[in-house]
Structure prediction request, 844 residues.
Amino acid sequence: MRDPLTKTGHVRVRGAREHNLKNVDLDIPRDALVVFTGVSGSGKSSLAFGTLYAEAQRRYLESVSPYARRLFHQMPVPEVDDIDGLPPAVALQQQRGTPTTRSSVGSVSTLSNSLRMLYSRAGDYPPGQELLYAESFSPNTAEGACPQCSGLGRVYDATEQSMVPDDSLTIRERAVAAWPPAWHGQNLRDILVTMGYDVDTPWRDLPKKDRDWILYTDETPTVPVYAGLTPEETRRALKRKETPSYQGTFSGARRYVLQTFANTESASMKKRVMRYMVSKECPLCQGRRLRQEALSVTFAGMDIMTLSRVPLERLAALLRPYAEGTAPKGKARADKHPEQLIVTQRIAADLCARLDTMLALGLGYLALERSTPTLSPGELQRLRLATQVRSNLFGVVYVLDEPSAGLHPADTEALLDALARLKAAGNSLFVVEHALDVIRHADWIVDVGPQAGEKGGQILYSGPPDGLRDVAGSHTRRYLFTDAQDAVRPPERTPREPAGWLRLEGVTRNNLHDLAVCFPLGVMTGVTGVSGSGKSTLVSQVLVDLVGAALGQGGADEETEEGMDLEREADIPTVGHIAGPMHGIRRLVRVDQKPIGRTPRSNLATYTGLFDQVRKLFAATPAAKKRRYDAGRFSFNVAKGRCEHCAGEGFVMVELLFLPSVYAPCPTCGGARYNADTLAIRYNDRNIADVLGMTVDEAHAFFADEEAVARPLSVLREVGLGYLRLGQSATELSGGEAQRIKLATELQRAGRGGTLYVLDEPTTGLHPLDADRLLAQLDRLVEAGNTVIMVEHTMRVVAACDWMIDIGPGAGEAGGKVMAEGPPAQVAKARGSRTAPYLRRFLS
Ligand code: ADP
Ligand code: ADP
Ligand code: ZN
Ligand code: ZN
Prediction:
């Protein structure tokens, strides 16, 4: 084989030191599919995103105006000596959590623009109506938006019920819960006192006239307020015309809620008032968001909003006859000018070509109107990828983060195809990936390792795939080359017998319709199926909702921090119930990849609780006792012991004029986070800041004699996190690392049993080696009498489960049924299951 490095140009990296990278040099080909592999935490992302992409972006931003620069989410300047031959880069990174901007499948893919053009130029207009511009078909423009709901499709209002949740309370007892809290709310109450309203009678016993005025009036009278006086005293003060404390202006509760909702810039205020609002479908447009003129224009018999709600697969089928010129030419159509037929055909053909790419990537079950915050990170990335494939860009490098995430093996072929098309168009592809199917298709592999964190950061191999076979230190090699002598083989195991069954009935949500399903208890279950078949709906929404409700715990939506989504209200709630007993399930725990905290104030040590023990040890030293330092003294979140200059953060924010702010080590404590007096206390010759700087491995050795500290540390080592530093902040941890920290925390309490653990694609971001470690941990949870249920795509992992539930056969409305269930060996034989053929290879 010809050396790809000489065939085309190449990218030359010298002295890369970002994060854990060990001053590495690297040469990789352009116009090729380069896959970065290695165990989690080895430094793949630091190389592909932190170094290569960050540098490409930095060079690009140097060429644009400072104003434009501010619009980018800029990455830090990478630690690297030199990079040559780097093309401009586009990153298609997985974004966890909700994207900040409100967008939809149609807007991200720009398909909505073409559809509007189609309606504007080639739609069927009612007789006498003038042609509309394309913008008139967008709910986001003044020309298009329904005047009653401003294009939202729903109207929001505040009612007595929503604003006064408990009408047995008096106004003084805050019956009007929607009013602002604290001083402002008290002020409104005092105004009512001045105006002679009764604030000490239960709300429901007040005259309707008074209740209506307080809630709904648009008047804003300004009256004297006598703060702190009783109603009786106020009356007298008014009569005597005493000088009031101040003049206060009243606002009705609804006015306050609606205005705050519309005008506030504070997300938490908005979220607060939303709790007191109700919404319903807009009566004017029936939720279709557009003006009547726009809705009266049809294509293929549908208005544009109705068409935006059909799955892409059906949309493509509807448009195809127009693209191919075979659509029936009805009377209206025949009357049209021939140019219009040409316009129809051209736009429809363009739409079909772009839709085909999306269908090929397994996105046919989505609709244009689906909002991006409701997509999984993998779906969003594939949507962006599909858009890029059609963009006709060339000469750029696409940097992707695990594009196979969320993909069933049956969908992976299409992904490889899309990548091949981008490459054929003259682009380079740098992909961080763990799926062996994808790695096998690489033109070039960069294997990073050998281990994670400080024990990684070296390039073990850089070259065509076959050469990796001879690299002894590579973990990837042992999974990739199954014929190698020391290849890792799937463990032989006998499935455990379920201890009981949890039966759900009448389940209806998204594409699940009146489904009945049984989950085995006391074993490990893998839920499989092509992407969009309904796995997450069943496990992460329905199961979590129903079991959560039965246990009185929060459901699926409870814990989302950005719970203020407008979409959420329109969400179809879970319909269904648990049939029969819960068989001793006492607790429900979701182990996901969400960050363990959003501020640098939480870290590994605080989250797992082991820092409490460490602080006690420091407080128990003779020196600390002498100075009367308690455990709180050793917390960087408490004023006593921390460095006050940085308030215990260890760094300070430096504002730059045109660039995003950067963090710099605190000049007072040099990053130690504590004040000098606290740092003077030593335990076995180390101060508290030294301990936070230790890796888990180091700390495990250091605290070997302290069971309460050593035990959680050994669990962290077992889940493969020995390389993390105790003080590493939550914001610097990857999703996979966060997940394993949660799991380690759970493993410490596993002894109790009776817990149901729910995981959604737990192996995302995990090298096969790490996935095996994860499995071993989950196995321990089951052995301790718990139940594990996970959505999973990796067949190696699924094959190791005790039980499987395969959902299908297809995606969206073509899915949502249980295709097969049973131990893996049995599911592997099931007919009609698209999972079975892939599973067979892992069951010998
Ligand atoms: P991989 O992509 O191979 O899983 P990463 O490149 O994400 O690995 O991480 C390599 C090492 O760098 C890990 O030890 C990780 O904890 C550390 N790391 C990652 N991001 C940061 C960061 N923002 N600051 C400091 N360390 C980081
Ligand atoms: P899987 O987990 O198997 O990939 P999902 O459960 O995510 O599948 O999706 C099943 C179906 O439900 C798909 O048609 C998907 O588009 C739809 N769906 C999922 N989440 C939502 C949502 N928040 N709003 C509307 N439709 C949704
Ligand atoms: Zn409307
Ligand atoms: Zn400081």
Summary: The mean pLDDT is 88.
